[in-house]
Amino acid sequence: MASVDCTSDAFPFVFYDDAGAPVDGVVNDQGICTFPTSSCGEGLPGCCAPKPYTTGTYYMFIAFAVIFIPKFFIRVYFKEIRERDPTLIEDVKFGKKPGWMNSGLLKYVAWMWDFGIWVGVTVLIIMPIFMKPSIQKNLTVSSRTALQSAEAFLVPYKEIFQFVEDIISIRINYALSRGDKVAANSLTHLGIAGALMTGLIASGFASVLGAIPPVLQALTNPGMKSDLALYPGCAIIEEAADSHDLIFNYWMIEVWKFPGTQVTMVLSGFMYGALEYNLAGWIMAIGWSMLPLIWFLNLSKAIEPLILLALGEFTVPYCMLLLSLLYLVSPLGKSIREFTGVELSISQLRTSFGDLFCRGHKNGDSPSESTLQASLLSESEGVQEGQVPQNDDSERESSAGGLIREGLCIMFLDVAVQMAKTLAIYMALKTDAATAYQLTALDSELPSYGIAYTTGMAFMFKILGPIFLTIEEYGYFFKMARVYLICAFLLIPLIIGSTSPFLDGLALRSGQVSTVTSMYSIFFHCFIYLCSSRLASMFFPIFTRMHVNMLTAMNVPLSSQMFMGQMQPEVHSLFSIPIAFSALALLLNVST
After folding, report:
1. pLDDT (tens digit, 9 = 90+) per residue, 179-193?
2. Rounded Cα–Cα distance for residues 114 and 538 (Å)
3. Considering only CA atoms, which of 543, 532, 535, 545 is closest in space to residue 508?
4. Which pLDDT band holds residue 529 (cuts at 50, 70, 90)?
5. Reduced to 3 states, what is the DSSP secondary structure of residue 27?
6. 74 or 178: whose pLDDT is higher?
7. Do the beta carbons of residue 290 and residue 316 sit within 8 Å?
8. Which residues contact 367 (CB under 8 A, 6 or more apart)?
9. Largest Cα span, the chain
10. Fewest CB within a 10 Å sphere: which of 1, 192, 224, 550?
11. How many CB atoms lie within 10 A of CB 103?
C-alpha cells in the first residue's frame, strides 16, 4: 500500500477543496487513491479539472504573430512591383469604401469598413477554437463518433463539387484588370449557374444515399456489428445502434446546405476578384457568427445537440448568400456594379445554364459570350489587348468547358489531400469504436493547435494569390507561397512545445471525463471494466500523433491554394507536399 503515490503530481487531473486549493489523495483499504478532503459531491461539478493545458493561450498569441509575418514580405513585394511599374497595381486597394458609407451618421463609423477582411479572418480563426471543444463536451460518445464519420464522407464528397470559387476569383480579377466588364458579368453568372447545378446534384445524390438505411449505416457507423460483438452489453454501443433517426435527420440537414455553400463561394470569388475584400470580410464575419450564436444560445433548450449543430451549419451559407445577394442587387451595391459591370439577372442565369449543358459550342453565340471567350483565350494564345483571337473552334475551348476542366484539376487535389483523414477515420471505425472516439478527441483540439491559424494563412493566400497571377508576377506568387509554407512549418515546434508537457490533461479534457460526471462513469465502466482493460489508456496515445497529423493539416490548405492558378509548370512539383504528408500521417495512424 505504501508504494501507491496519491499526491496530486501523480495524476493527470487535480482535485480542489472548498477554498479552491489543490489537495492530495489518500490510499483506502483496497489500495485505491481517494480524495476525501476535496469538495466533490452532488451538484459540485467544479471539484476537479485536468492538469493545466493553458499553454494553448500562449501558443495563440505566438501563432498570431507568426501568421502575420507574411504581411511584411507582401508589403515589400508590392513596393518592388510598384517601383518597377506603378501601373500594374495602381487599382489594388484593400480599403475601398462604398459611397453610402460617407453619408449621414455613417461617416463617423466609416473607418470600421477598412477592417472588414481582418474581422472576417479573425472570426474564421477563433470560431472553431471555441466551437470544437464545446461540441466534444456536449455530444454523447455515439453522436460525436457518428458526426466524425459523417464528416469523413461529406467533406471529400463536397470537394468533388466545390471547385468554382478560386477559378472565378482569378478569371474575374483578370477580366477586370483588362477592363472587360462583359466577361466579368458572364463569368459570374456562369459560376452561379454551375455552382447551383452541382450543389443540387450533390445534395440530391447524398439524400438518396441517406434514405437507404444500410448505406447510411455504412457511411456513419461502419463498425457497428463488430462493436456489438466486441462489447456485448455496452450501453454506449447499443445507443449508437439505435440512433438511425437522429443520424438521418442530421444527414439530411447537412447535405442540403451544399447549394447555398456553392453559390456563396462563387459570389465570394467574385468579390475577391473585384477587390471587394472588406465587403466579403464583413459578410463572412456575420455569416460564420451565426453558428456559435445558434449553438451557445440554444444548448440549454430541449433540442438534440447534434441537430442543433446541423441547423447552425445549415444557416451559415444561406445567411451569407442572402446578405451577398441583397447587397449586390440593392442600391448599396451600386459602386460594385458600376466597377465590375455585373448585373445579376434571371435571364442571364438561364443563358449560363444553357452554356453549361452545351459547353459553349452551339452556333450563334451571343456577342457577350464571344467577347467573353476572346478575353479568356487571349492570354493563353498570346493575343494582345485589343486584338481578337482567331476563330478556330478546333483549338479553343469554351468558357464553360474551361471552367469544368480547371475545376476537375482542383477537385482532384482537394479530394486527394482529404482522403488521408477519411481513410484513417473509416479504418478506425471498422477496427474499434474506442479507437474512433480517440480521433474525435484529436479533432476537438486541432483548431486550437494549428488548424485555425493555417486556415487564416490559407485564406489570405487565396486573396493575394490571384492578384499576383492577374498581373503576371509569377515569381512573386511563388515567393509568397514559400513564405506561407515556412510560416506554417514554424508553427510545428510551437505545437510540440505547447502540447507535449500537457498531453494527459488535453486528453482528459477532450474525452469529457472530467467535466461530465455521468459520462465519466458510463464511458470508463463500458470501455475499461465491462469491455476491455486494454482500453484504459485510450485517450492518451492519440495526442502523441497530433504532431505528425499537424504536418498534414498545415500543408493541405496552403498547398491546395497554390494550385488554383495553374499558371506555371513548377506548380506541379508542389503536388507531392500534401500527398506525401497525408500518406505519412495515414501510415503512422494505421501502424500505431
Report:
1. 788 888 888 888 898
2. 48
3. 543
4. very low
5. strand
6. 74
7. yes
8. none
9. 93
10. 1
11. 9
Task: Give φ, ψ of 33 to 5 degrees.
Answer: -75, 130
| pLDDT over 60 at 336, yes or no | yes
- Separation of alpha carbons 167 and 191, rounded Å: 9
Mean pLDDT for the stretch of residues 253-277: 89
User: What is the rounded average pLDDT of the residues 126-147?
Assistant: 85
> Is residue 416 helix, strand or coil?
helix
DSSP 36-98: TTS--BTTBGGGEEESP-THHHHHHHHHHHHHTHHHHHHHHHHHHHHHH-TTTTTT--TT---
Q: Fill in the amino acid letter for 484.
A: Y
- Phi/psi zone of residue 391: left (φ > 0), alpha (ψ -120 to 50 degrees), beta? beta
Helix (H) / strand (E) element for 163: namely none
Take residue 208 and report the three cell numbers written for it.
438518396
CA distance 347 to 327: 20
Long-range contacts of 53-56 (CB under 8 A, 24+ apart): 53/502, 53/505, 53/506, 53/509, 55/497, 55/498, 55/499, 55/501, 55/502, 56/448, 56/449, 56/498
The model's confidence at residue 394, banded by pLDDT at 50, 70 and 90, is very low
Q: Report which DSSP code applies to 395.
A: T
How many beta carbons lie within 10 A of that of residue 59, not counting itself? 20
What pLDDT is stored for residue 359 in this prediction? 53
Give me the residue spans of the domains in the chain: 8-50, 53-90+405-592, 140-386
Q: How far apart are CA 251 and CA 254, in angstroms?
A: 5
Residue 281 pairs in a beta bridge with none
101/108 Cα distance (integer angstroms): 9
Q: Please tell me the distance from the alpha carbon of residue 582 to that of residue 193, in angstroms, as a whole number.
A: 33
Binning pLDDT at 50, 70 and 90, where does residue 408 land? low
Q: How far is CA 573 from its chain centroid? A: 25
Phi–psi pair at 126, nearest 5 degrees:
-80, -25
In single-letter form, the type of residue at position 38 comes to S
Would you say 209 and 392 are in contact if contact means Cβ atoms under 8 Å apart? no
Instruction: Indicate the pLDDT class of residue 532, thresholds 50, 70 and 90.
Output: very low
**Beta strand segments in 242-306, E:** none
User: For residue 37, which amino acid is it?
Assistant: T
- Interatomic CA distance for residues 108 and 463, integer angstroms: 28
Q: How far apart are CA 272 and CA 464, in angstroms?
A: 9
